[in-house]
Each structure stands twice: as C-alpha cells, then as structure tokens.
Amino acid sequence: MTGPVLPPVTVDVLICTFRRPQVAETLRSVDAQRLPAGLGLRVVVMDNDGTGSGRVPVLTAARDMQIPVRYLRTGGGNISTARNALLDEAQSGWVAFLDDDEVASPHWLSSLWRCATATGADAVFGPVLSVYPPGTPDWIRQLDLHSSRPVRRAGVVETGIAGNVLLRCDDPRWSGERFDVGRGRTGGEDTEFFFRLHRLGARFEIADDADVHEPVSPDRLGFRWLARRRYRMGQSYAARASGRAERLRLGAGAAAKATACGGMTGLHALSRARRAAWALRAALHLGVVAGALSLPQRVSYGGDASGQDPDPGATTRPPAPARRGRGPDPG
User: Which residues face 168 on adjacent strands?
Assistant: First the structure.
C-alpha cells in the first residue's frame, strides 16, 4: 500500500511540547500556512513529558487539519533529547522548528522558503515577537526584550534560535550533528548548535517577514526573570569561542563591558526603562564571563520521565556536544 502523494518539496515542521495545551493553536497556525506551489508540509510533534500530557491536545487538533501530523513521545524533560529525536524522525531534506507556545503568521513558512531559495542559505531565521498581556509594565513593553530577533555581527549571521528557523538538514557536513544534551535543561542548546553548524560551513540568512508570535506569561513580567534570561543568553553566546585563548579574550572583554554597563546603570537611576536596559546588558555580559569560565548553568527547563519538575536550584555543567540521539517511544 502506497502512502499519500507528496509535493515535490516537503518541509518537516518539528515541534517539541512539554505540558502546554496551547500546542493545539500552534498546530492550527501551521495548517493555515499559505504555501507556494510545489511546497508541502508534514508535522512531527515530540511530547517531552513522559506522562504523555500532550497526546490529547495534539491528536484532537490533528483531526481537523489538512496536513499530516505525527505524534511521538519521549521522556526526561530534556529539550535537546526531544529535538534530536525529531531530527532522527525527519524524512525531508528541510526541517522547520517551532516552539509549542508560538503562533505562526500565515506567510511564515513561505517567507522562510523564499529567502532560502533566493539566497542559497542553509538555514533561515525569523523573528519571534512577544504578545504582552494587559497590565504589562510600560518599561517592559518599551524594551521588548522578550522578543527574539536574529542578528548579524559584522554582516554575518553566526547563530540563532530554534523557535523560528528553516534548516537544510541533509548536508553531509552537518547531517549527523545534534543538540547538546548537556544544555537541554539549562537553555542555550540551540545557540550552541547553530554556532557549531556555522563553523562546519553552514551559511545563515534572516527573513524579517517570517514572523511568529509568542504570548508572554505573567510570571515572566519582571526584572528578575529578564536578568536570569540575559545572563543565560550570555553563557550561551560564549559557545562561539572555540579554544581556551579565545574564551579568555571573550571573557575579559565581557568583564570590561559589564563594568561599563554597571556604571551606566547608575547614571540612569532616574529612568526606569534606561536603568533596566543597562542593568540587563550588564547581566548579559556577566553571563558571557561565566560561559567563558565554563561555570555551571542553572537548570531551567523540563522534568524527569515521571513528570516531576526540576529542582529550581540545580545546576549543570555542559559536556561535549552530542551527535545522533536515541529515538523516541511511539505515542
């Protein structure tokens, strides 16, 4: 018995989910994509909760969708393990990653694809734009640090995040590369992964119009959460340094920048937004220092296979990057 006839090019949309019923809305936004002729989609959802909490919302949404959806389950609450299992399941030479709390605009995938074909890029990143709830402090809206926008450094895109990316995954130079399991509960696994692919020769581009939207939960609307996030982002950015000497240079430069940002924080003591902006920049640079020194990272995500939440005070030291991961259990 033969399967359905697929378009000439099919992109596998890969989504990890962990205890978020709103993954159903994410799936519906994928089903609503306006695609160019000859481009098709297939969705694979990996439930990262060993209890299978995502099964009902995923399969319920899939019943009303036009594009095929496959639900799989793995355990451990490690985002790298789940993403690696998704890569192992991919059947296409192109994959697109989305997070389970994001809603893609109708032109999301077509914009990523158009940029990839026009530029010959091996991966294209798009922006993740935050949707703030009523009552959000003005300074948070003004800074908009919850949103994630891909950036160029000296004209080059060196890395990005897995919340909005189209990736050519069949190039033999990096087809066997996988997300670092040691970073799968601390964060930054995607930043390090794309830094690694860039060093292997992958070329990246940005599609500013390939936007997805992510609601911000009330527990993230504070300076403390933002400071922790910026610090972790700094630790992740340190992955760009490939040797001891480079790490020391990066750490020394970041320490000087953190000191300068601390001084600017004091100079803007009367402005809530500017004071917060400089203090958060200082936190980012301090994170780079910590990453350059390979200090332990805070456990932020996931739980064990039984569904237990992580110890909020736990830390972990990332091991060497992984390659192929272990496959998932069928859902």
Answer: 94
